[in-house]
Amino acid sequence: MTRSNADILSTHPCFNVKAHGTFGRIHLPVAPACNIQCRYCERKYDCANESRPGVTSSVLDPVEAVERVETFLERNSGVSVVGIAGPGDPLANEATFETLRQVHRKFPALTLCVSTNGLLLSDRIGDLMHAGVRSITITINAASPATAERVYDWVLYRGRRMTGIQAAETLVRNQWQGLINAVEAGLLVKVNSVYLPGVNDEELIRIAKLAGSFGADIMNVLPLIPQAQFRHLSRPSYDMLHAKRAELRPFISQMSHCRQCRADACGTLGEDKDMDTELLLARIGEEYADSILC
Description:
Blueprint: H1 5-11, E1 24-27, E2 36-38, H2 62-75, E3 79-84, H3 94-106, E4 111-116, H4 121-131, E5 133-139, H5 145-151, E6 152-157, E7 160-163, H6 164-184, E8 188-195, H7 204-214, E9 218-223, H8 238-248, E10 266-267, H9 275-284, H10 286-293
Parallel strand pairs: 1-3, 3-4, 4-5, 5-8, 8-9
Antiparallel strand pairs: 1-10, 2-6, 6-7
Helix pairs in contact: 2-3, 2-9, 3-4, 4-6, 5-6, 9-10
């Protein structure tokens, strides 16, 4: 039986603050390629000591990803969501769709979720639906091409590498059309926006108004992690973030419990288990593993 959006929402830790401490998720890092370059993004695939988007200890193929879900479910109850969030853009990687199809066939009760920059969302919405995806996150950092041009270096779309205002116009147009298509398809939709002081802070209200008017369910304003070309900017303080969310809340619900997860995160939002340890425990037995890990 097909689950309703209300049922999915009640157990989705990223969409529902009441669910985030009870229900867990597992991110499958099967998507290394990216089709845009954000000026705040610095991806490191093999980094065990950082917890931020774009980081994973390894990149999996679809078979390995399904095995990881199976192993994690054997040892952890309460997992409700399997997501693909990178380390690149999921829709730019065919492994994403094969992984989603395999997971959906084997674990049909789990909610499938994808995070994307939205460039290919309209092009691949049918493939996502066919694979069983029920919720999606779109990172939208600009409402206007002028602001987008400040945020992104380049865009690769349908074989063309674009820069400047052409890249910005293409990305912004595709993001908003993709959001509209996702809502019309019946998906739960979350909009992520990175708060970039002095770059897009004044435009976040336009993003909130548009997202709310188009039917998105929730918005997540994330504080910038200063790095790459934006390493000179300051990370917004808690007070700045709280005030910005309050300003945007009249137009769309605001997420306040995000942990800016790694591309290979697993567990509840507050715990993020070490998947390598989980695999070790599953293979050699918890009692023996505890003795060698202490």
